[in-house]
Design brief:
single chain, alpha/beta, OB fold (Dihydrolipoamide Acetyltransferase, E2P), 5-stranded mixed β-barrel, about 40% helix
């Protein structure tokens, strides 16, 4: 006859089985073929993994299923990472999948997922740690290859959106064994500048997971997280995600998109100023009209009472109020007009053509590159000199150096 002390309920047995499985099998990687795929109305995914000898059930909860970047189908071979748990109602064990990928992506993907889980646990991807991106930066540091298409795209975007924003490029290697250290050096350089930039953009064009691997290295990701300056990443194409993207303060899908998001459009700024001026004008006009109605109302009341001295005082007071309101209105209007004119003058001064009209010129070599120093000119070099109303082709007769400037 059984002892009551050894008598277990069904739930207790299930709990003990669950404890044994949990202790013996921590989170594991499992490769197998998908079968019995089903997605519930709530968004949870249920499937089985099988090989030629066994089958195990698995589940992906909806909050993780919504972030999948590929379509799961029956017959597909996949690698999953997850925890083996029990489903007590049916006395079944199953895998609670935390990540899933098509089979065959290799060790780099496994390393990516392992490091991602570690850094996420350390808090490097927390939204609460992200710094705000300045709305109106005047100086931006760019970490990228100085000869890449990415830097040309960013400079083009900057010139189109707001030529007054200064972009400072830190020359970095963005692929290969040396890439990680140069990216870190760039972050440290901009953070240690006495005249710091407002934000940093880290950019690189698209490529394979191997090409972009420098941006998945732990020291690089930690340097981005520890930066005192806000960092915007524009790495690869829209479908590419690196660990640097998760740690940055804002992730843009491409380098040019990073510049678009970081640099304010001068046309929008001018439109905003114009709207502010119109709003202020309307506000003062409303105050003026309201005051004028009040004055007219008071004047009518005074006329009805008809005490001569009171009437004269009120008329004088009315004139004073009118002059004060008109003065205030026109003073504020003039002030706003001066601000808008100042901004327009500043923009015009940035136009290279306006500089040429003041008597300056630009000198180009045979390769159409701008000559910035006499050190770059030799006798008999062919030059093109651009003036405001045309170009002059010339040949260098001799080069005269200012005292103390010639290379020895």
């Amino acid at each position: 006859m059984e002892s009551k002390t050894n008598l277990l309920s069904v739930s207790q047995v299930a709990d003990r089985i669950s404890e044994v499985i949990s202790d013996y099998l921590p989170s594991v990687y499992v490769e197998g073929e998908v079968s019995n795929y089903y997605r519930s109305n709530a968004g949870h995914i249920y499937l089985s993994l099988k090989d030629d000898k066994a089958l195990i059930n698995a589940v992906i909860w909806s909050f993780q299923a919504s972030s999948l970047n590929f379509k799961i189908e029956n017959g597909m071979r996949v690698v999953v990472f997850g925890e083996v748990i029990t489903y007590k109602l049916r006395s079944q064990y199953q895998i609670k999948i935390q990540s899933i990928r098509p089979s065959g992506l290799g060790n780099l993907y496994l390393a990516f997922e392992e490091l991602k889980n570690k850094l996420e646990t350390d808090g490097l991807f927390d939204e609460s740690a992200k710094k705000p991106i300045p709305k109106y930066p005047t100086k931006i540091g760019v970490i990228t290859s100085p000869t890449s298409a990415a830097v040309r795209d960013m400079i083009q975007v900057s010139g189109r959106r707001n030529p007054s924003v200064k972009m400072i490029v830190y020359p970095a290697v963005v692929q290969g064994a040396e890439a990680g250290e140069t990216i870190i050096s760039g972050i440290r350089h901009f953070n240690q500048e006495k005249d710091p930039v407002d934000l940093i953009i880290i950019g690189r064009g698209g490529g394979s997971i191997e090409d972009l691997w420098a941006f998945n290295e732990e020291p690089v990701v930690r340097a981005i997280f520890e930066s005192e300056l806000p960092i915007v990443t524009g790495i690869g194409h829209e479908i590419d995600f690196t660990l640097s993207d998760f740690a940055s303060d804002y992730r843009a899908p491409t380098p040019s998109a990073a510049a678009e998001e970081s640099i304010p459009d001068i046309r929008e700024i001018l439109d905003n100023l114009s709207n502010l001026e119109n709003n202020m004008t309307s506000s003062f006009m409303g105050m003026y009209n309201e005051s004028k109605l009040n004055i007219n109302h008071l004047t009518r009341q005074i006329k009805l009472l008809n005490p001569e001295n009171t009437i004269m005082n009120q008329i004088q007071h009315t004139d004073d109020l009118t002059r004060r309101i008109e003065y205030l209105f026109y003073t504020k209007l003039k002030e706003n007009q001066n601000k808008v004119q100042y901004l327009l003058t500043t923009l015009n001064s940035l136009n290279p053509e306006s500089i040429l009209e003041r008597g300056y010129s630009i000198v180009y070599d045979e390769n159409n590159k701008i000559i910035k120093s006499v050190k770059n000119i030799n006798a008999n070099d062919k030059l093109s000199i651009k003036l405001s109303d045309g170009n002059i082709d010339s040949v260098v007769d001799s080069v005269i150096y200012r005292e103390g400037t010639k290379n020895d």
